[in-house]
Please model this.
Amino acid sequence: MVKALIMSGYGINCESESKHAFEKAGATAEIVHINDLIAGKKKMADYDIMMFPGGFSYGDDTGSGYAFANKLKNNLWPDLLKFIKQGKLILGVCNGFQIMTNLGLFALPSEEYGEESNALLANTHNRYECRWVNLKSQSQKCVFTKGVTMTSIPIAHAEGRFHCTPGVLKVLEDNDQVVFTYCDATGKAAAGSFPANPNGALSDIAAICDRSGKILGMMPHPERGLYLVNHPEYHHRKEHAARKGETLPEVDENNFRIFTNAVAYAKQNGA
Model:
């Protein structure tokens, strides 16, 4: 049975949704507080997939994701590197993406894990954004997004503006590490325009992966968009389907696929 580790700590608030998503995808998922890993009550090595959920870890008092990342790096860094070197999967969403960015987990071909290659800055209009956005898949490398072409997912963040140097951007694009970009409802690139690009992200980037494609960080929340009933246009879509004699499926297959892909990959690799 595939085992998913849902990282928790003070200020994290999306553990339950994340646990449910992996369980629905066929895994056994466990919410584990970072303090229990540090104390040795739980072992990172016992899991096949790790997820850093969203929230406001430690109140984001020292910057989004910094305190959680520093606590992990100061206490669990060798365990995390071993987890990565074993080819296991890591997913970070929203605050989780911020934590992973501060940990330097999005290694470029010429870099080691632990080197920060990008940043997630304050939204250009300095407001917390809570809305649904459209995403277009750009990567053939990322394990989590196989079979996803375009999807609609909610966001909830104040510091989600992806930024990096021009040199790093070129490497990310050339190495197929840009996973999702913001777009409009037709799939046309947002081109930096609000609200299709909700935070002013460089090149409309909403998600990236590491050089292996096994570590994914994204600002939008797929665990909150798992069920079609959650979508703001659900009743319109339901009525439209009914008039054609059809019924809507329970889950949004694109968003759910992020979790089923991870579980399937872990199974194929000996979990």
Notes: DSSP finds seven helices and eleven strands in the chain. The mean pLDDT is 97.
